[in-house]
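Researcher: Here's the sequence for the chain we discussed earlier.
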Amino acid sequence: MSTSNYSPGLEGVVSNTTSISYLDVELGQILLRGYDLIELSQKLTYPEVAYTIIYGALPKDHETATFVRQLSEQYQIPNDIYDFFNIMPKNTNLMDAMRSGISMLAGYEDPKFLTDNSHDANLAKGLRLLAKTPSIAANAYRSLTGQPFVSPDPQLGFAENLLFMIQGSSPDPLSLESFDRVLTCYSEHEMANSTFAARVISSTFSDIYGGMVGAIASLKGPLHGGANEAAMYMLLDILEKGGEQNTEPYLSEKMAQGIRIMGFGHRVYMRKYDPRAYYLREYIPRLVDKKPEGPELLAIYRRVEEVMLRDRGLYPNADYPIALILYLLDVPIPLYTPIFFAARVAGLIAHVMEQHENNRLFRPRVNYEGERGLTVR
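Model: Thanks. This is the structure I predict for it:
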């Protein structure tokens, strides 16, 4: 077998034809259904962008209202899932708790409908997942940290409801706007590892819940979803060990040890600025006074960016500004990746539907380097 097309990590390999999204590196643009992601984020709310990703067109006014109502009516999760959260080990990883919660949701579908992979069936199940995932994320975290559950409020919009369940109170307008922009920028990003995982699983004609569980497992890894958490822990570590004036020595030591600086570089963008990071960084100065340590963290943030560009030629990816934005919004760090997933459900729905409607089972080959001709004595 020819191995001429072998590419470690499938780098540069085209796996799908899609009409959902595309990273145009030359133009520095992220396309969602033909629209620029940054323009969508500037002019639309997260539910409107989610609608566009799932349905393939911008929503009209009445369609937005209907879509928002459909989601709010399905925010609540079954009581059995709350009961499960109460009995799961308290050292359970939050992403594992979410994975289990999503798996349990599948059990509430009629068995025949669960395995129905038609467009309409996937859409109905997908909207349930989009609506309920924030409730699973927030309340799994609450259970693991010994806090009382907070039921979703159907009177609140998607972003506001998620922050409400995390914090127990409604956010101010700037916080809500910033959080909504974060969700939008996480909503879809072409063939990310978690999206590819969902499509590989779906290519077996597994149901949409199976695809979502696979995506969660992918996002649990620190090289994908965990990068935002790692970036924030780094900023806080620098703050604790001397602040902005110690930033350069801190980074030099880490890089000398071969430790990867999370939140910088990207397999696709490589040595260009992630458009999402460039856009979202403007929210940080507007939020910086929400915490006493905010100004110093902003100084560290800027200094890290300067050093990484000078010494490594690397620009921030979206996880870097999002990490600090969520921190300034008083979102607990362990919730960063679950929030990533809750936002990405919109894109995953579209990808699973597209895979099922034009399916080809993923079954690649390998470049074999093992021995041959061995015999059993």
